[in-house]
Amino acid sequence: MERLGIPMSTAVDMFLNQIVLVGGIPFAVTLPNAPESIDATKMSEDQIHAKIQKGYEAYMSGRTQNAAEAFSRFRENHS
């Protein structure tokens, strides 16, 4: 909320007032569609096992990144 110049308490009050005014959450609540290449609900069991195997092989060969460090770099580059 800092970027908008609104204190958090004011933002929460605004949100709660909107819930009362519109009779529900004042925005659509949806889940993003996962790309088919990673949507396990659209894969066969063999495809899922192949992806797991590929990830395991990447891990064993050292072709992985520390998630905390990767997210930290992402935030630095996109803030």
Kindly describe this structure:
- This protein has 79 residues and is mainly alpha-helical.
- Helix content is 54%, strand content 0%.
- It has three helices and no strands.
- The protein has helices at residues 8-22, 45-60, 67-78.
- The longest helix has 16 residues, at 45-60.
- The radius of gyration is 21 Å and the shape is flat.
**Number of E-state strands:** 0
Mean pLDDT over the residues: 92
Helix content: 40-55%
Question: What are the low-pLDDT stretches, counting only 5+ consecutive residues below 50?
Answer: none
What gap, in angstroms, lies between the N and C termini?
14 Å
Domain unit count:
2
Shape assignment = flat
Strand residue content: under 5%
Major β-sheet profile: none
Q: Write the element-wise H/E pattern from the N-terminal end onward.
A: HHH
Radius of gyration equals: 21 Å
**Helix tally?**
3
Derived from helix and strand composition plus strand pairing, the structural class reads mainly alpha
Which keywords apply here?
79 residues; mainly alpha; 2 domains
